[in-house]
Amino acid sequence: MLSASRHKTATHQAGRTSQGRSVLLTKLVVAAVLLGLVLAFPALAPDPFILSVGVVIASYAALAVAWNFVGGLTGYISLGHAAYSGLGGYGTALLVTEAGVNPWVSMVVAAVLVGLAAVPIGIASLRVRGASFVIVSIALVLILLLVAQSWAEVTGGSNGLRVPRPFGTDVLRPEQHERFFYLFVALTLVALVLWWVIDRSRLGTGLKAIREDEDKAQALGVPTFAYKLVVFVVSAFMTAMAGGMYALWFGSLDPIFQFSILTGSYLVLMSLLGGVRSLLGPVVGAVIVGYAVEFFKNQYGDSQMHLVALGLLLALVVLFMPDGVIPWVSAQLARLRPGDTSIREVDAAQLAEERKALEEAKS
Question: What pLDDT score does 91 carry?
Fold first, then answer.
């Protein structure tokens, strides 16, 4: 009887291992196919305009993943991440135009400076939660907008600030689009890998405990404030990198656009749409929202109807996919494939054998 129960347990565990391997293999194949399609996009784009739309979507993906370091791991909703992307853009532009620093070095240096500036900002803002944190993030963007508009001798004010092309005037605009598309994809991949590493680390465990119940996490000895500050600075740094790269691609900076609350709202929408707790959720949301924004702008011109359309899109997602697209799709696929029943019938001997195996594994 005992031998039969051992054989049954081993068979069950082997089946679960085989199923896990097949799921992992399927995910790797799907990821490879999607990455191949992304890398082939510049060659498949029918014209430079479509290619430029792809660059915008890729930049949104990098920004959304950067935002998700805070939103997805800690549950703190920030509408003010445009502050860090704007600072990264202006910092990069000023280092290039005023100090004559190499554009790519300028982008990294500006991001480091923004990360350092995020330390005191985080110390001040992370002491509040919920709606108060949202208000503080909005206030930061509005303050920087007023400063950028008023400090015209440095930022160019309402006239904007021109940024030289990093690849020289001999490289035509379509080729610049193609190069920056790959650069934004690379930056997004770096951010995804960093998010994945943090998510599976001790820091990530503490951050997820903060997301579920911060008071309980603190009572259990988690250094909640330090953990939040670390991931806040990382998020600001990655957001500034994306903002600096956007400045080099677009070639012109305007305070109203760079320090826009609407940009922060887009990032929240993208992450919520794709799924804030999943690795690729912000990327999926960026593709959907980025394409929708460009499509609605093309359809409705300079009117605000694209905001109405995006609002309707968000309402549909909240109604039918409250956890995001990726969790919803995963749930539908889980319903289609056979799996374990919720209650597994076992006899006393098999239960004792499984308990013994578990104790041996722990020792």
Answer: 96
Cα separation values, 240 from 7, 78, 91, Å: 56, 15, 9
- Taking phi over 0 as left and psi of -120 to 50 as alpha, with beta for the rest, 45 belongs to beta
Q: Identify the CA nearest to 53 among candidates 192, 238, 249.
A: 249
Q: What is the dihedral of CA 264, 232, 315, 145, to 10 degrees?
A: -20
More confident residue, 3 or 291: 291
What whole-number distance in Å separates Cα of residue 293 and Cα of residue 286? 10
How is residue 105 written in tokens?
A: 């070095």
Longest dimension (CA), the chain: 86
Classify burial at 195, counting beta carbons within 10 Å of its beta carbon; exposed 0-12, middle 13-18, buried 19 or more: buried
Cα atoms in the 13 Å half-sphere on the side-chain side of 328: 15
Overall average pLDDT of the 285-312 stretch? 79
Sequence-ordered strand ranges (E) for the chain: 161-162, 252-253
DSSP 171: S
47: phi > 0 → left, psi -120 to 50 → alpha, else beta; which?
beta
User: With 0-12 CB in 10 A as exposed, 13-18 as middle and 19+ as buried, what is 50?
Assistant: middle
**For position 15, what pLDDT does the model report?**
54
| DSSP classification of residue 343 | S
Whole-Å CA distances, 181 to 31, 53, 137, 175? 18, 10, 29, 10
Higher pLDDT, 265 or 301: 265
| Whole-prediction pTM | 0.84
**Alpha-carbon gap, residue 223 to 92, rounded angstroms:** 34
